[in-house]
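Hi everyone, sorry if this is the wrong subforum. Our group has a chain we'd like a structural model of before ordering constructs, and none of us has done structure prediction before. Sequence below.
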Amino acid sequence: MAVINTSGRRKTAVARIYMTAGNGTITVNGRDYKEYFPTGTLQYIVVQSLNIANVADKYDIKVNLNGGGIAGQAEALRLAISKALCEIDIENRPLLKVQGLLRRDPRMVERKKPGRPKARKRFQFSKR
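Answer:
Right subforum, don't worry. Here is the predicted structure as tokens:
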């Protein structure tokens, strides 16, 4: 099997992955993913698509992550892994699609507007 190269995005986080046949190690920015994502919830998000496709110990994944926060990075990584699994075997697609793992979440932070403290908040009104 050749190297599968794909990317996933969430908010401002970008995950670029390189997936090869191996024994299931996931390396994020040169560190193990359990060290990079300290909470169990984020670790579950990272391996969710691998567990659904029953290939958790068949592929080595090297990840370059940048931008965003830690939760957005985990979800960007999940999307990238899901897309790579679909490239490897098209039969994974219905399993991942029904769980909603192939949909990119497009929600971004709304920009701050001039003359306001935040995007929609206004300064306190004073009548006198």
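For your construct planning: The domain at 4-98 is CATH 3.30.230.10 (Ribosomal Protein S5; domain 2). The radius of gyration is 18 Å.
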